[in-house]
Amino acid sequence: MSRPILRVALGIALGTVLLAAQPTDAGLEIYWIDVEGGAATLIVTPARQSILMDAGWERPDERDARRIQDALRDAGVDRIDYFIASHFHGDHVGGLPALAARVPIGRFVDHGDSVEQSTERGLATWNAYRSVAEGRRRTIAPGDKLPLRGVEFSFVLAGGRTLDGPLLPLGPNPHCDGTELHPGIDPGIYPEEGGENARSVGYLVSLGAFQFLNLGDATRNVQYALACPENLLGEVDVYQVPHHGNGVAPELTWALAPTVAVINNGPRKGGSAAGFQVVARSPRLEDIWQSHRALDTAAAYRAADDLTANLATEDDCRGHWIKATVDPEGRSYSLTNGRNGASRAYLSR
Fold first, then answer.
1. Is the N or C terminus of the chain more exposed, i.e. has fewer CB atoms within 10 Å?
2. What is the pLDDT at residue 192?
3. Looking at residue 9, what is its pLDDT?
4. Measured between alpha carbons, how far is 70 from 54 in angstroms, rounded to an integer?
């Protein structure tokens, strides 16, 4: 082979390798991973940066860590750039040590130290988190952002505090008429509630016109503070219903007016009829998806089977995920049921 031909052949081969190494023109991906009533929500950006909020339960068989790994493989990533602890309860961070032993994790994000260290369970959960995250922690406040490429990732809730002002000047929220906070609750911080749920981290992800909101286990009063007297967040496309579908504030849910709501419940944890009814009455809602069939809730107050990732009891569950895929411009998106392949497409607002 002559030298010019050899150079051309090498150039073509090198170009093929370089093209294969570049990120594909992928969109934003969101996985709701079934951890049986806990929480684990994975986001993979178009630049293939990965963010996981929560890691399910601590278990001898490391079930939840394995399920998160399966979702990472499906997304084509092999590390977690940012792990966010929504708050320090065992169903949200118990599985973190097992996950960290399996998957490299870059940085850890949280609302600050646990406020439940006075109990044996609370202290054990906190110490397990610290053992993994120490030296790589970042404590955030509402208004902070993650330095991601191609998407905007903004924290809207942390440590019991909300944003100082609305993202858009929307005026008074009509859904607040005739409602009020529980007595003694300050809209800025909620020491009366005393626990970790009220300190949950919440974030808003934006890609073009598309917006996804996840508020962890934010309590009814914290949700209210985001909504009244003025909606601080505007409208969203996809809403992860807080607290596994329990304690859902209509003032916020209806003001957000999501197109799609996702409830991350287990077979016998979360997914309450009352919470489902609040979500179902939201204006402009098209579909409710659920991680798991709520076995103790009547069929009228559950998502349709096609939009429910897992139908079996916990012992028989295979841990199917729900996946959202957002086009690279953020103009449209689809949700897919990992169990049966059922998929529905939506337009961003």
1. N
2. 42
3. 43
4. 15
